[in-house]
Amino acid sequence: MAYESLRDWIARLEEEGELKRVAAEVDWSLELNAIVQQVRDQEGPALLFESIKGYRDSRCRKLFINGMGSRRRVAMALGLPKETSYRAIVEFLKEKLDQQIDPVKVASGPAKQNIVKGDAVNLYDFPVPKFSPLDGGRYINTTAATVTMDPDTGIMNVGMYRGMLGDDGKSIPCLLVSGRHWGQHFLKYKERGKDMPVAVAYGTDPALLIYASAPIVHPHCSEYEFVGGLHGEPVELVKCETSDLYVPASAEIIVEGRICPDPESFQMEGPFGEYTGFYGGMRQPRPTIRVECITHRDNPIFQGGADGSSPGHISESTHWTSPVRSAIIWKSLENAGVPNVTGVWGSPITTQANVRVSINKIYRGHAKQVAAGLWGTIASQTAGKNLIVVDKDIDVFDIDAVEWAMAYRTNADMGAIQFFSGTPGGLLDPSTPLSEKDTMKYGQGKWTRMFIDATVNWDLEPEEQYGGRREPPLCTEMPPETTELIRRRWSEYGL
Q1: What is the CATH T-level fold of the domain 318-454, as seen in this structure?
Q2: Predicted pLDDT at 321
């Protein structure tokens, strides 16, 4: 099922009992997110806040959040049954990565119902929350799609990057990392001595958010084509008022602006409560969107989302980023020629810092080839700090099974655990020294990666007493005839 807009998605959630409207007045500063955290921790519904303190009569009065804050709602967003497992979601997304449908450009759309320019531009007209106590400010760019264009090719990129409200209400200082697609675009504009046009879409259909947050390699198209493939129909786009960028015609709100490469134009940004569960991104001057125009629907709905996963707490975004990034890693390994990959998973709690891959191993060194393949992809900028490779008999979605393989199929002295130092890595990882995470100086964080080969070690000789295998038989397996016997007689046992 394709959702044409956020409102279409909200209507479906309400129909399925997956949405709760909050009519009580709620403060945008901390109180709103404290409510969201409680609901999230209980895998509760999506929330539509309809009465936000100070926004009773403003341009925007509602805020939608936690739309895909559970596995079942991620499945719904993809048009799959609610009960679909994460494995099936990953496999579905992997297949969809081969399908792209070109977007269509339309003359206008709901996102153009209101056009605001010049002195009337004021981002404080929108109920942007302060999510966490030590956040550097109110974060407007959280669950939003940021659009830029490669000045060489004209190909657009749609990504998800954090941005904070500037004090003047007309600017958004952003965490802009050169290793990301929009960071690469920014460097090209900087070389030309030109400002980079930027547009940010708030309140879109869920498929766009799924792909905007994913490290897709798309040299000949944008994320819009992938969203079309997922929908089975083209995405409708409208041209921005102030640039040649195109944005979703059905979006609730569009912010248009430019980023100047001159450091004198940068504004202070950070820290922010990040996906790691820690505050991330030290406060420093950062590239800043100077807002020139806002377009929006009548009675627009703002969409936001707080990050932050730690034991007992899972953020909304990790429910959808984990399966789509796992699918991309799986597809990337196949495209790199790594054979017989049978599963990939990075659980929501680690947001892909830990990745588990299963293979049908056919030669010595096969597991190490997985490491080389993964660490050479764009996904490795935030994924695969710790990589565990297991045999196909181990379910990578079952952490107990993976730990069993790590316990009894690894021997560090025989090369099962290895390190790869000095690699680019997660900028927001708190285990990396602060001095190594200066985006303006290094462009990315720094990781020493760990590879754990938890497959059966092929350096072990097949043993006759093991029945010609490299490891002993499992004592937990019964003969098929015994299993069938107890199945037939189970009711007799009175158990």
Answers
A1: UbiD C-terminal domain-like (3.40.1670)
A2: 92
